[in-house]
Amino acid sequence: MLRRVVRQSKFRHVFGQAVRNDQCYDDIRVSRVTWDSSFCAVNPKFVAIIIEASGGGAFLVLPLQKTGRIDKVYPTVCGHTGPVLDVEWCPHNDLVIASGSEDCTVMVWQIPENGLESPLSEPVVVLEGHSKRVGIVSWHPTARNVLLSAGCDNQVIIWNVGTGEAIINLEDMHPDVIFSVSWSRNGSLLCTACKDKKVRVIDPRKKKIVAEKDKAHEGARPMRAIFLVDGNIFTTGFSRMSERQLALWKSDNMDEPICVQEMDSSNGVLLPFYDPDTSIVYLCGKGDSSIRYFEITDEAPYVHYLNTFSTKEPQRGMGYMPKRGLDVNKCEIARFYKLHERKCEPIIMTVPRKSDLFQDDLYPDTAGPDPALEAEEWFAGKNGRQILISLKDGYVSTKNRDLKVVKSNVLETKLAPKAENAPTIQKHVTPQPSAKMEDKLEEVLREFKSLRDRVILQDRRIARLEEQVAKVAL
Predict the structure, then answer these.
(1) N- to C-terminal Cα distance for the chain?
(2) Of 262, 275, 266, which Cα lies nearest the Cα of 301?
(3) Coiled coil where (predicted)?
(4) Mean pLDDT in order along the chain per 10 residues (474 residues)
């Protein structure tokens, strides 16, 4: 009698765990817009959640530690005039976030170091170039200030955020709505999934389609396509019989898939989240109550099912934490932020290990926050590899630079020299210790201002409650 041999993998016993109720973000009106984006973006400092907003579009930006019930008057980012469809944090600056909206614009925002204390309605830059709603925004993985946007006008535009200009416009490549766009590891290529059932690999700077596959998935429902670390492409979609599928393709030859797997006959679009360090793909279906995860290897069947994490409630969206935001001491290899109808619930994926030592095999060097290139270098044709960092001592964030947008304006150029000279004179006059004291004083003033604002909010709330109690008493 032949015994079935179980494939060895250090991720076979990965288990997911939802956090306690007091560590969730409660009383959030998650957006009800019918658009298949994740509605949530996370980085090591903040979680951003697209919410229902009257008279325009808005999203919440919460410091990770601000758990519990979120007050209805908590400040939002609210500059769009139509519902927000997608948000993404800049990988090179944890205080910068981009948003795409039904109002046909992309906006880039600078979030204060300690989070929002008042509603933010003034973006750093507004990027206008789409004629229909913008459903996808995606930052370049290696070049600073390079942002991609895709809209329902079937265009992909690549912007230099530092100058606020549209540098590349791919307008004749997609005859229908673009479902997803993914950058390759070094950002030299794009992979798109379109409503015409084609998956395309595009060289954006040459404005050329390198490879394409017609009917990658035969079903009419939305597809997703992402680049893997080895250059292969992973897709999710639907079969002709409306069964959900996943497939693996070689990017240089997409005639036949490396493998195709049928999953189930649910309706929800599968959102793939990929960890390049461990080669694990997590699939979160919209409207599902589960997260399935698979390991991708060089051996058949290439995509190996690992396990499923299930909860009772379906997910409206999902945020995925970058590797440098995880707790390496607890062997945490992924963290998701699951959106319910009225709350956001963190889910932690861990590999059980007995040792307290740093687990090198779980945490190879990962992408750090430093860009390899400036925007101008990338647009000129240069490529750069991601600058990797070690997580051995946990990731400690360095100070982020403010995002500055330089537009050619005669007045600005005339005023600039004076403005630049002023701080240099100051530097020569003041000794080093006083500069440190000034920084500390500024920090204390910021804290004092936030406390004062909080007291004012509480006073208003108490006054409202007293009025309500008085009415009840009458």
Answers:
(1) 83
(2) 262
(3) 434-468
(4) 58 89 94 90 96 89 95 93 96 96 96 94 95 96 96 96 95 94 96 95 96 93 94 95 94 91 90 94 92 91 92 93 93 95 94 86 93 95 94 71 64 37 36 59 77 80 82 73
